[in-house]
Protein 1
Amino acid sequence: MASLKRRAKRIALYGAVAAFCFFAASPFLFMLITMFRQDRDLYRVGKNSLFFKLPPTLDNLRLLFFDTNYTTYLQNSFFIGVLVVVITLIIAIPAAYSLARLTGRWGEQAGILVFLVYLVPPTLLFIPLFQVVVKLGLNNTLWSLVLVYPTITIPFCTWLLMGFFKSIPRDLEEQAMVDGYSRIMAFLRVVMPLSLSGVIAVVVFTFALTLHEFIYALTFVSASDQRTISVGVPTELIRGDVFFWQSLLAAAVIVAIPVAIVYSFFLDRLVAGFTGGAVKG
Amino acid sequence: MSVLGLRGGVRVQLRYLLDREGLLGPLMLLPAIIYILALVGFPLVLAIAYSLSDVTAGDTSLDNFVGLDNFRGIIKRPEFRRALQNTILFVVVSQVLIIVLATTLAQILSQDFRGKAVVRFLIILPWAAPIALGTIAWLWLLDSEFSPIDLILRELHLLGPAGLLGRDAILGTDTNLVWLGRERLTMASVIMVHVWRLLPLSTVILLAALTTIPRDVLDQAEVDGAGFWRTLFQIKIPLILPIMGIAILFGMILTAGDMAVVFNLTRGGPVYYTQVLPTWSFFIGIEGGSLAQGAAVALFLLPLLLVVTILVLRLARRSEVT
């Protein structure tokens, strides 16, 4: 009896796991299948099917890569991502170290304030920021996004890095300073090498955040050749009522899956940041 | 000579300054503070100034103070009431669904079973993928004519002319549900995409919280004969409540402040059935060019935000104490 009950529990567990996986991942599965289907296969009114009835084709990918601005969006997003990562690291690393070590109680309060800035949604700021961008003459260029994205990434990354720096024993730096290093040298030579994994996590999140961002990219940039992947694909590849469904889905999934794979490796650190260190992942 | 001497002096002074930690600390923090003040603080003030003026995309001077006229005008419009209702409805319903599902899923994932790493990856996908691109998948899944969801429902005889056992199909005899064309279904679709997108985040946060519960507490509960539900509601949930609170508050901000889902899925339509404050603010302020009113609409999010922020701070403090 006991083993029967246990087996029933086991089956229920696997059933629930399968149901959740289907809910989360099936949209991507449909994208992966649909992107290789021919028009004649996909659009059969009243007789459409979930899977291939005709052989797969690469025509949709060809259309996407050669007849649309897709590769331009990819380049733009990459360019913006790299620059924002650099800016974020240059500003967030010293700030985080300062909050972790040099500013004492006062720094703790400031650290919480920095985190609160992360809670301000872009929806509240996009209209005035648009005017700032216009005044600076950056509207319709991807430089506007390079300028503005660090407002999202700096607070979050400062908060994350602060956690890493705090987890490194103070004694190590103090020993180095007794040995004649200045504070800055101790930081660069002792703390930074130990924080490398944290810095890599920050690089990943910063890059991912720039890829995810939608509202600023939609508002500041309307020139097609300056658009990012998140905005270019849904606004430019949908032309009026004509949907190039297979190419559209391909455009989305080609970016979504690699980003998701890299992102998932660093998820635990992200969670630690979100819960304000209340949970050490 | 004097120039060189001056330079040397500056260098010595600089070195002296950098060795004083009382100065070095603020100095290292300064760039971040300047960035945030210039591009978050200033725009926030500007948003409030805009909402009290009559600026448009054509005339951006702030010289015309109109008091609360924008807010008064907006409140009178039926679209506003709908957008406010929708925003609250979407936030509340999706958060309730997310927290129930995430607690369930976190419970499941805290057990041992084969293929857990793969399962974890699949579950995380919707959060890790850029949301504007994820929404495109749903646009296809909910297509008015070729929707794969409708197709599956037809195969199950829950929809379409071929019902079960001679009766009409439960979901209607039309071949398609037209998810994004009907008032309630469209709203349900928006909520579904929000749930889909945020479930991974809440789950992972709750999972991390569950793993902090000491093993002996759970063992003791088992010895005392507490069943599954009792353990869940009287031991696990009370222990992870502060972190659950943080997960809920983050979810609320991410849903209330999001416009990628609604913009890409429905553009606020049909009519304004799924319009929310962020999308309406965009349509009025950017597409319509009325910066003042657009800013005013977005500012209606501020009270919600303040309440959430205060709650986050309290919870964070409490979870530090325990």
Protein 2
Amino acid sequence: MMQLGFYFDQSRCTGCFTCCVACKDWHDISAGPIRWVRVDTIEEGKFPDPFVAHIFSPCYQCEDPSCLKACPADAIVKRKEDGIVTVNQEECLGEDSCGAPCKDACPYGSPQFGDEESPRMQKCDLCREQWQEGKKPICVEACPMRALDAGPLSELKKKYGELKEGTGFVYSSEIKPSIIFKPKKNNIGKP
Amino acid sequence: MAEKNREKEVIIPTMCASHCGGTCLLRVHVKDGVITRVETDDGEEPQLRACMRGRALRQRVYAPNRVLYPMKRKGERGEGKFERISWDEALDKVAAELKRVRENYGPKSILFLPMAGDLGSLHSIMTIDRLLSLAGGYTTWWGTTSFHGGVFASFLTYGTVFCSNTRNDLPNSRLIIMWGWNPAITQTGTNTAWFLARAKEGGTRIIAVDPCYGDTAAAFAEEWIPIKPGTDAAMAIAMAYVMIQENLHDQKFLDTYTVGFDKFREYVLGSEDGVAKTPTWAEAITGMPTATIERLARDYATTKPAALMSGIAPGRTTYGEQFHRATITLAAMTGNVGRSGGDAGARAWESILGGYPYKAMGLGAAIPFTFNPVEDLTKSDGVILGYTYPKIHYTRVADAILKGKAGGYPADYKMAFIVNCDYLNSLPNINKSVKALKELEFVVVEEQFMNTTARYADIILPTSTFVEREDIVFGVGMAYCGPQRKIIEPIVESKPHNDIAKALAVKMGIDNYDEETEEDRLKQLADMVDIPDYELFKEKGVHWIERSEPYVAFKQQIEDPKKHPFTTPSGKIEIYSQQIADINNPLIPPIPKYLEAWEGPNDPLAKKYPVQLITNHCKRRSNSQFDTFPWLRELVPQVISISVKDAEFRGIKDGDMVRVFNDRGETVLPARVTQRILPGVANLPEGAWYNPDEKGIDRAGSANILTRDEPSPAGSFPYNSVLVQIEKVEGVK
């Protein structure tokens, strides 16, 4: 089965948030709690030796997604043709009905719920419609640092190696998020 | 949602150039005259990818606080109450007021206050500049707010402001010193951070000298040197001391290309004033250990080529011009001028003044230049500083309005014509500026948004954004230009700048404002910069003048100095400047010197206000632009960054509300407690829209409520020479 995924060069990310705004514009999402893509900042160390890294957090389109298993309505689907995990909003019961076990099950905070009444789950779908036009997700196109890429995971591995972890991101071998890293490591105090 | 019908969308390329430091390609999707979404450059590298601000285009164009109609003030000035009027009524009123003030008080009483918020060649502040000049003249301000220290230093030392290599030369450096330079935030040319990443990946060492561990330092620097604000020149001069003592400087370069190094050496070694500018001397001033200063000096002198990127923030201090003069001297001492992989050390933020020397460029390049008839060059003894009579330094405008002739200013000021300029948020000492604007007889503001300054207008003329008119803009940091396209009709009743000026000219009875069409004007400009096919240019979106080979400033002067002298009086790099010596002001010395700043750590005022405030640029704004867009606000909250040490001392925890104050004003906002700043320093990003409560305390975190309205002697703006106190606000979250 083909699996699409992301590559993230953490050593290049400056935390500029362009991916976040491009995503909201492209998918027409207002300011507010819905964030299909997040960039979180990790700060370690002490003055005058601080360490900073950023972590790109979309939905990682896990090979064995925990949100899918947790959904009581089978509203979450993993597509066979490309491994993208989608949610059928018509079938989603809504946070108020089921308590959003998908959200609790995902270790990466990908399922999103709005502040409207009984919100349905939504999340990053790797800009699935973009692939039909031979294009990549809008966040990849947007990144001013060219720190992002997306494609079949097997190809990404060939191109970028097989590292699955970066600062602030722990790979879950249970659910297998589809992402390859070039990590930025905290070397403070290390030779 | 993503699935919504997107058929019939048309994609039009245009350039976003919003005074942010970048000039980026947006491919704007439009359907039925409405912008639906935005893509960026997907062509050949180097692509000109837009940042978060460019991607928020729709929140800019369709912002609820756009000024949609000409407006007339109701109630008190500054109260923010307006009523809609017609263009006819608005322009009649402005024309009548211009006439009344000119006839009653003379043209010098008319203040023209423009700023570079919108970088069009046709639709810019130069439209009203021309109109007011044709109408008999006006008073405007002098000084370059962002980087006057750099302009002064490069003009006097190199004879030009065009001192920078293009950014694609950065990977050719073996060492890059980012001195007060944070291009991940301030761009300084689209792709600068990307070129830094590529430099680092190619083995270039990158060191940051900065009171803050900014996003660029955090991403790329192997070392952070957290220097005290306002002491940068001392550190640079002590580096020169180390190079001289250890004979690391390039004497042959200095002999061939510079004048006055011997005088500088006397000062550095102490034979001039009895004080040797040793690293120990600098340690006491800068707070940086002697060993660090020595190491940086040796690294810079022995790693070739090396680029000392002289950021403009250290220049925005008292005597900030000395910092830029000192870094230029270091660049010359190390032979890094005119060399690929080096840098002339002048000013690493070129904007419309400097960078690639286009055949025509800049604000208003498509508008015929008109001399302001009240300017008198014979009375302009300070012309070397950028001053001509009767201009007022930007920092002094409020003072000039309040005092007029009685305060020694050339006129009594009665009205202000403010264009593209959030004067209140962008200039120092907001409380004084507010008082001053209330004193005027008439204030007209030409603006896109109901911003702080527009609230103080009597008449607001609504102007359009860059997607609502045709124009041409130029790249910073790399050599290219691109079109700005009229993608949609002007929003409601807003008009592009040149249309406003033309309509106002008719009301003023001026018939020679412009007889040519806008298209002709833009085609002429396109011809001047050798764009072969204007229609194709508009279609493609970007015209590269030089894409692959880096442009290296002063290459000719270094390769063939006889044939290509520097454009200074001596034909050389003037480490000692006779032109400066002729001013005969000990606070503007002819060689670079460290002068102790007012509102620096040793000012007696520090007993009362012990924290050094710096006012950096904010990731989500471009000065005060973009402040209100929700997509950006939610990602970057307005906070004041303070060190853990300073926070603990004051019982402040991360997220606590704090009051920041000095004798000029007070603002209240959340604190961010961080390891990423030098203790004793706080960083309050400038540009948040001033929002006073009933007691006059600002609730927006607007930095210029605290800054001092006094220029440095050579004209630098001391936005980073500010002393404040910070206290926790009890019981407020």
Protein 3
Amino acid sequence: MIDLINMRFRDKLLSEKLEFRDENIEVLGLELKKRVNKIFKKSFSIREVDTGSCNACEVEINALANPYYNLERFGISFVPSPKFADALMITGALSKNMYPALMNAYELTPNPKFIIAVGDCAMDGGDFKDSYACMGGIRDKLPVDLWIKGCPPEPIDLISGLLKLLSK
Amino acid sequence: MKEIFDSIHYFCDEFSEDGNFVTIKTKQLKSLSLYLFRDLDCDLSNVVALRAKDGFIIKYLYSYPKKDYFFIVWQNVQDKFESFADDIPALNWFEREIYDLFGLIPLNHPDFRALPLHPENYPIGFHPMQNDEIKDENYGTYEYKDVKSEGVYTVPVGPIHAGVIEPGHFRFAMSGEPILQLEIRHFWKHRGIEKLCEGKEIDKVLKISQKISGDNALSHALSFAMAVEKICGIKVPSFAQYCRVIAAELERISCNLSDFAGVFQDAGYSFGASGITALKEDIMRLMKLLGGNRFFKDFVIIGGISKNIKPYTKEIIAIIKQVNITFDKYKKIMENSSSILERLETTGKIKKQTVKDLSCVGFTASASGRFSDFRKTHPYLIYSKLDFETLVLDEGDVSARVQVKLNDIKNSFKIIKICTNYISQVDKPKLKARYEIKDGEEFGYAQSNRGNIVHFVKIEDNKVVRFKPRDPSFMNWQSIQFAVLGDVMGDFPLINKSLNLSYAGNDL
């Protein structure tokens, strides 16, 4: 343990030293925070549901948690259950096997709720439109409030998408 | 090899050798398969069923780890075939998948339940690759292997999980703290990629291949492109080959770093996790600079690469150097922290025999004492010219897997340095070769961070008539059922993260 402390001081690896800054994110983020504070009383919770994506969208959504973006400081968090979520974030081409599970999650999310479709396949199935195993996205199944396009959308697209949703 | 060929001749009816691929047709399929799998210690790499003039053909691909050889064993099939899943457990999922998609019945299969087509959602008798119309719309149910006894309880998890991860169903049978049995049920994300790619143009399939498993987009595109290049006899310029290696290694670093962060996170050490995710972000931004997007999508094209990365050699070297320094610091922190190591060591042990039986690939195999890395055993691109040290450990626990991955990251830094030096000296970079599409069928393979990807491609009249991708996760998923035995539930996220399996690549 003492070794560890010594090493950290010797290498000057203190948490204060870890600074990451991306000016675009700061500008967008502060705007986002203002709206979250005003409309949602400082916290906006999202439940993410993957309905058959290629996992690139998940990688990018997870990237929102890294120190460059750190979405939680703007009051937005990804929550483990739909039961206390304000919005469902849906990725993927909606496979037949995931359809019942998605519908369960939708029903368990309390009203009023937002539906956010993320990625090119989420809305209409994208490249997987013609497949026997896909139901062609959520366009005609759920009331979608926002579609963040991109294959996959970059973290900054996700942030500006959320800002657009909360500006409505 | 001559002795081996002589013994194979003893079994076979037809024998042909083409480069490092040996194709064998035999009537004694079972004895030959067992000879390859047990005596020669081959790994099962892919099983492909395809339509033929008269019935179907099933091809089994075995890779020989001691020398750069592949064995393709094939048989003609009408509507049933003999199952070897009892003797070669790695065949279990392949045979069930073939039944679901083609309707070919594996006789005497030990576990004959539906796999990709969940019986609740697909009518009984629906086999998409067979092109038959479904007559009746009857649905079935899936039977789980329940453990029943006094004090034993079941914890079902999924398909939607707590974190931002992909869907899959896990059923734990618990007795007090320890896990008695874990049953996994997957294919929730089954998107029908094999059927979808039938009869599509090559470029279209290349695009879809990048969506098999998004984080390994480049490796999947690479294996598909290399299969097509082999069919058409395309020689990729050496500059493009070096660029492909740089891209592949950057992808490897990015994925391995995210695993490293995950291990910190699941061991309850968020400081380390957030630091490493920042490094991953640095690499992804470099990838965007080089390839135009953060996943190197559309970077690999048939015959070469789409973007010249030579102008950015300085940036590559600078960022890699900086990431390397910070990475070393975190590695040191992990190695010096007894509380983290205590979580990792002896957790999630996988035995060498399990790895062999299931033909596990990549770090899962290497950490359990069975070396698996196509960059060394079946070198492609320019990997045979590169010098790097791979690691094999016998422990088979989470700690061993983490060490293999960390060593892999180090290797990638080294390889990128060598390749960037090379491309910075090339005067007239040639990005792609000219080509003409020919008919034929080949296997293409590449090593992703999870293990080897093996794709089968068959082309007729400029169209892909059969594409059978095999993601490393398909081979490795079953091993998690053995890794968790005897551990506590709280260690499951850590074990899962250390195996880092792709749901999308598995489900296709």
Protein 4
Amino acid sequence: MKIQRGFPLVQSLILSCFSLMLIHLIMTGTIVLYISPKLIWLSKFSAILLVIMALAKLVALPHNHSMAHNCCNHDHACGSAHHNHSHPTKGLLQMAIFIIPLILGFVMQPRVLASTALSNSINTAGPVPYYAMHIPKSDKFSNTVQWPSGLFVKKNAPSSAVAQGTNNASINLLNKSNPQNKLNLVKPLTPESVSSTVKETDLMQLYLNIDDHPEQIYNHHWQLTGFVYKDPTLAKNQFVISRFVMTCCIVDATPIGIIVESSDAPNLKADTWIEVDGLLQKRTLDGVVDIKSVQNFHETEDGIPYLLATRCKVVATPKDPYLAPPLQ
Amino acid sequence: MIYIYVSQPISNMKFYPVLIGSTLFIILGTKAVQNKDVLEQTVNVATLALSVILQALPFILLGVFASSLIRYLVRDDWIAKLTPQNAVAGVIVGSLLGLFIPVCDCGVLPVARGLFRKGVSMHTALAYLLTAPVINPVVILATAMAFQWNWHLVGLRVVSTFLVGATTALLAGSLFSPKAFSDREWHRHEHGNPQISLHQLLLHASDEFFDVGRYLIISAFLAAAIQIWVPKGILVQATSNPFLAAGAMMLLAMAMSLCSDADAFVARILANQFPLGSVMAFLVIGQIIDLRNIILFAKNFRLSLFIFLAITSLALTYLLSLSIDLGLGKYLF
């Protein structure tokens, strides 16, 4: 009993430190580097609960003795009489493990996931690397694992990327393809007729529309932000502009990306955050241009999106580096 | 009233998970030393681990509070009246209980323990423990979102989890005595606590928090280390052969230890390359046996029961995955 009740002060301290850490992370905004913004309300809630628990632990101190004894007797009565009261330092040692995340939370500058997280990942090692996987071709999943555009809401889509004059035809098309869905809020990326204007967007927005409205995606100029991933199988003047998509926490983050061809590519270091303007094209991989060095692609008949960069600009790591998955 | 498990004999296998965990961590760490950007990777591991902890924290709290509420609000005689003593019925009730006490795999163990203490049969407690992380409204909804409201796939996941979890629970409940729940926490009876106060509830919840939390912290660091340091490329090579693919996906699910809310979103990516059965194996086994559960189960159960649970659920999941790929799938889709 001494072990358990011996450290209410320490436990109370740990609980309140956890709460403080949560508050610290939320206040500084670094929490979005750990968990999805849609879970922050849960963290706030936890912070409050932890404080209450810490207070309860503290109040337990003075009049705790009798209660502890009661329970102790009770346990003995239940036949578990052989619990040896081990040395208190051991109990403290067990508590010490809670200090590790606390130190990390207060001291560590969290790392934004980038190439390091990709090097041993399932997303680059498979037969089809992530940047070539936008079109799920799989037969039995054909209606299931696509990322149909009509279903998704992208709240922070820059308005410039969103069509001003959505034509009725495309809305009908969307409604027809997803009749059960009422949340038909994604506006198709209808470009202005002149395709030379550069439109700012993010990778997710392109992905969401690329299957259903390829004509609105390909052969247009886009401005994209992401980090540089250098796949060893790509040619020297190519890299992959990538972003991670986070569902709950960064362990489940999955990358999306597009191959970029740029004369600046050899000078760009991996993991640099850049802003790229370029013309998005579809390339088949049968020996066209420099992409020969990529060996594993399957989807030759379709080609993969491919951005011909006109301008590359190094930018600072954004405050919210992770994209949200569709269907929030 | 509640002990820290240190006070128990070391021979109880309590320390082994910690030992194995830290050894593995050190091995992985030394492997990284050979790399040039060790620091970079270590910070990455720490970031990932803290991310898992932060994300799991609310769900652990949910679990320990649910457990405390059960302890103080549910009366033993209700349980005796409501839960069947028949093994099969008990397993079915246990599997469906998740719909009413929804907790994910971070918080399921304290709840199962609390139910068992209240007199629920071993079958029911185990069935709840193994299936509740998937068969609960929140996770069903998340899975449906990830799979674009394809209720076929959602149903398949729920049914698969039920088949594997319930069968495992049925067999384990019949073969083992309740003594196989070796952690003393399982057998601490309170007969109708006289003074139910909010204060006691909070105390109990924070004790459970410290009891479960340490293992979650260890498993978070392990999962993060595996994520960064262990090459998983070999696992995703075996896409065409269903026999290999199922095994690879199961290994992947256990190594990644994803939360049941998020794993369907990862599975969707895998579904582009892998046969349906192996994706289902990923979704089923990941919530029954993963790093987190291995550590918690090893601490809570006698070694024989722990190994039985692991092997049975692995074998059943593998069989299920193959049967989906080699025939059953044709009837379903």
